[in-house]
TrEMBL record:
Signal peptide: none annotated. This is Peroxiredoxin. PANTHER family: OSMC_OHR FAMILY PROTEIN, OSMOTICALLY INDUCIBLE FAMILY PROTEIN. SUPFAM superfamilies: OsmC-like. Pfam families: OsmC. InterPro entries: KH_dom-like_a/b, OsmC/Ohr_fam, OsmC/Ohrsf, OsmC_Ohr_Peroxiredoxin.
């Protein structure tokens, strides 16, 4: 279905420790990300910026969004092209560079999916479908930095 899609979320800051933002060290960066009908996501900032390392930060979520979007397109294309995926795991990495003038920006994200396909399926086609998935990925099409993909295809035993 083509057209415009809207995504409504709420971010509730839960980090007022009693004195609000009276100084940089006075508050927690904790927040909760909410969307109707979905589980809450505990968020914070990166630990380098006084965040809670046990919570998701926006940088984690951006890399996860790129990885998940790529995976969803990839699985779809494999299903359409007759490649049976039995397992998929991505060890994605994002690189953000701090900048005095802008604060910081991602310089690149590298996806490293390891895909297990059914014995006898076409490994070359399975590898090529990563290029098509990248072309269609909504999130990759929305960012202004390179998203690289270094897939590894293995056959099931």
């Amino acid at each position: 279905m083509k057209g415009e899609h809207r995504y409504n979320i709420t971010v509730d800051w839960t980090g007022n420790t009693g004195s609000g933002t009276s100084c940089y060290a006075a508050y927690s960066r904790d927040h909760v990300i909410r969307a109707a009908g979905k589980p809450d996501v505990p968020g914070s900032s990166d630990p380098a910026f006084r965040g809670d390392p046990a919570r998701w930060n926006p940088e984690d979520m951006l890399v996860a969004s790129l990885s998940a979007c790529h995976k969803l397109w990839y699985l779809h294309l494999c299903a359409v092209e007759g490649v049976t995926v039995e397992a998929y795991r991505d060890e994605a990495e994002g690189v953000m560079v701090e900048d005095r003038d802008r604060g910081g920006a991602f310089s690149a994200v590298t996806l490293r999916p390891e895909v297990t396909i059914r014995a006898g399926d076409d490994a070359a086609l399975a590898a090529e479908l990563h290029e098509r998935a990248h072309h269609f990925c909504f999130i990759a099409n929305s960012v202004n930095f390179p998203v690289r993909c270094e897939p590894r295809i293995v056959h099931a035993a």
